[in-house]
Fold this protein.
Amino acid sequence: MSPGSPASADSDSKRRRALPIPRATLGMQTFVPDSSVVSDTVPSVNFGDRAKGRLPDMIVLHYTGMPDVEGALARLCTAGTDVSAHYVVLEDGRIVQCVQEAKRAWHAGVASWAGEDDINSCSIGIEIVNRGHDWGYPDFPSRQIAAVIALCRGIILRRDIPAHRIVGHSDVAPARKKDPGEKFPWRSLANSGVGHWVEPAPIVRGDVLKMGSEGDNVLALQESLAQYGYGIKATGKFDTPTMEVITAFQRHFRPERVDGIADQSTLKTLQALRESLTPATTTAATS
Ligand SMILES: [Zn+2]
């Protein structure tokens, strides 16, 4: 860029800067993208077949959690890492496809949702470039979120994905994962027809369930979380796994306070979500 170039040309060239394609993938055979909003394919070697020909009816959203996009793409695409995702959404809104949707990408790891634990076989994994909690956790740019929405809307239409089966990695692996985290704008996605959302109940004083609580109220909470989809055992004891699931629930559905304590706002938000999940609304969301 010469010193005399206009500012607009400068920012344009930054937006269109070359994709950092991992060297090891350069000779690989590419494929036709599944989505019209994909700008590049960077084929990953890390994938397999979906178990028993399972068709994906779920979307799992992640953040990359790495300092830069170069490192993230290299990790998702090269041999030996055993991780991948179908799509990567860059901060500038470009969308890269790494694994064909028909194949099983390796993004969820040990995970569970709605009684299934081979989440990689039943889902499409989308990695959103963001440094994550360990590296300062920046806000998600609106251009990037618009790209995530466009990508998801296409997948929802093509594959008839129900709204309540669009979740975060932390929802399916609450003991291990925080992504995409409490800054991820699930409300904006829902306003654009992506995912299940109700306005969180306001935070007020009142009785809470927390570490050490026991009894029927805890049992009912655990059953309610399990019926929504979370992998949780109904023991009647508010134990560490329960606290982890409440934390994951809050990151997604009540992000104003993420503390693992089931306060009245958390309980009411969960109840409202479950009540809004009638057969009529799930049909409407997928039609
Ligand atoms: Zn993840």
Notes: Residues 62, 169, 177, 179 surround zinc ion (CB under 6 Å). Strands lie at 40-41, 47-49, 59-63, 87-89, 95-97, 103-105, 124-128, 166-168. Residues 1-9, 281-287 have pLDDT under 50 and may be disordered.
